[in-house]
Task: structure prediction
Amino acid sequence: MTTDTRPDLARLKQQLVVAYRIFAAHGVLDLEGHISFRHPDNPDQFVMGRHTPASTITEADLLTLNTQGEVLEGSGTAPGERPVHVGVYLARPDVQAVCHSHTPLFITFSVSDVPLSPLYQWSARMGYQVPVWDSASEFGDTPMSFSNAEQAASLARTLGDRTMALVRGHGAVVAAGSLPELALITVYALENAEIQAGALSLGGTVKYLSEGETQLCNNMLAIPARTTRPWQAWAAAVGMPDAG
Ligand SMILES: [Zn+2]
Result:
């Protein structure tokens, strides 16, 4: 007999609020970014915060949506860029949590031909040489925001089976198997971006993890305890202790 160890809906809602606070505290989310999780009982639905600053989100601000982007439960305005989440959940049955952010340093790398790529062990979960989705290559001139399902599906194709993609002149999307894993990937991707920008500014040759090193580090970080420990530390730091 197997035991279902997936968190239930109430637990996931608690974790989503914690995740919003962690992402706000680390400068991942600003006024506009958002996080979601796939509904544990209805895989065609997901839960995300309404259009309100990440640093103020409570469980009362959470909305349940379907894969048409329609609000099924909750009150308030749904984020206009919810198609990003829909696109990833439709393309990736394995994904249980998604973050879409406008993090300034992710935008920096999205407009450069220098790939965002791991420099150390903890950032390996974002993958070797993070791909960049460029709206202009398929959709020409746009207002640089996600207004429809076609753009979101195109972004999901760039993401492929990876955990992270940058969005040119806009930000990033991160996909994970859980909210703590989403935090691990995203927070360390941002830390890597800071370190990488600093290393590049020194003017010498920057030594990145090889693709093989990235994979080996990735395998090591896949151990659940590697995800739980930073999540617990970050949750405590925002005053919302969580076991992960
Ligand atoms: Zn956006």
Q: What stands out?
A: The chain has a mean pLDDT of 95. The longest strand covers residues 171-176. The pocket of zinc ion is lined by residues 81, 100, 102, 145, 170-171 (CB under 6 Å).
